[in-house]
Design brief:
With about 260 residues, the chain is mainly alpha-helical. About 75% of the residues lie in helices and about 0% in strands. The protein starts with 9 loop residues before the first helix and ends with a helix.
């Protein structure tokens, strides 16, 4: 007597989907991604128009034309939603930096790179609204980011450490202080320039270009030791690879949220 045919395995069944089933699944994923983009666009527009503190998830849902529950399918909290808005902006920055490092190697120097990021923060509407519009917003999102995108934050720290190590190894920045002290100084200078603006009346603030130039001078005088062209080119090539790796992680996290 012939044996009864065995039940196909789960993997066999999934791999034998009909073309119409596969097409339907791809269309569903594509629709989820478009929906997530629409939600992020709406959140970004409201952030720029009203500021982080005034925007609610209900506001974003109405603007995007979806139900409030649909927002929570993608983003578990308001903080998570707006962190995703900022991640898209950061992704644009990383892509710009990778391109710039490959075209203009001197950009790898902290006195060029950090002022470039400072100017970008003022030119990118959602970043300006989130980080420069309200002093409390930066703290709220910083605390939330550790929980919601902790691995991405950890990788960003590793990339920064590797970047500074490259500069030290090629004799471009000071080595008389421990690397963690140099990193702390660099971050403190940058964040100080960003956050001081919101604490001063408009009439007392220099314009962005003047602040960027002053920031460049401070960083060059306190951290840089050389701008040797050969070393600068070598570090720029390696730094572009580091930032490109971070860009890949940003892409992965953004896609993950879009396809939930």
């Amino acid at each position: 007597m012939a044996p009864e045919p065995s039940e196909p395995s789960t993997s066999s069944r999934s791999s034998s989907r009909s073309p119409s089933e596969a097409s339907s699944s791809e269309a569903s994923t594509s629709e989820r991604e478009r929906r997530a983009e629409r939600i992020l666009d709406a959140a970004g527009e409201l952030l720029v128009a009203w500021g982080y503190g005034r925007v609610t998830v209900d506001d974003v849902a109405r603007r995007a034309g979806v139900g409030k529950g649909t927002i929570y399918l993608h983003f578990s909290t308001k903080e998570g939603l707006f962190l995703s808005v900022l991640m898209r902006a950061q992704r644009r920055l990383m892509a710009n930096l990778v391109d710039l490092l490959r075209r203009e190697p001197v950009t790898v120097m902290p006195g060029e790179l950090i002022p470039h990021i400072y100017r970008w923060a003022h030119e990118e509407p959602v970043v300006r609204a989130a980080l420069l519009g309200d002093p409390e917003t930066l703290g709220v999102l910083a605390r939330s980011s550790a929980e919601l995108v902790g691995e991405l934050i950890a990788e960003r720290l590793r990339v920064m450490e590797a970047y500074l190590t490259l500069l030290r190894e090629h004799g471009l920045v000071r080595t008389d202080q421990p690397p963690e002290v140099v990193r702390y100084s660099l971050v403190s200078i940058f964040v100080g320039y960003l956050t001081t603006e919101s604490m001063m009346p408009a009439e007392a603030r220099p314009d962005v270009a003047a602040c960027a130039d002053a920031l460049a001078d401070v960083i060059r005088s306190s951290i840089e030791t050389s701008r040797a062209p050969e070393a600068t080119r070598a570090v720029a090539t390696l730094a572009a690879e580091l930032f490109d790796r971070l860009l890949g992680l940003l892409d992965k996290e953004i896609r993950r949220r879009q396809s939930i």
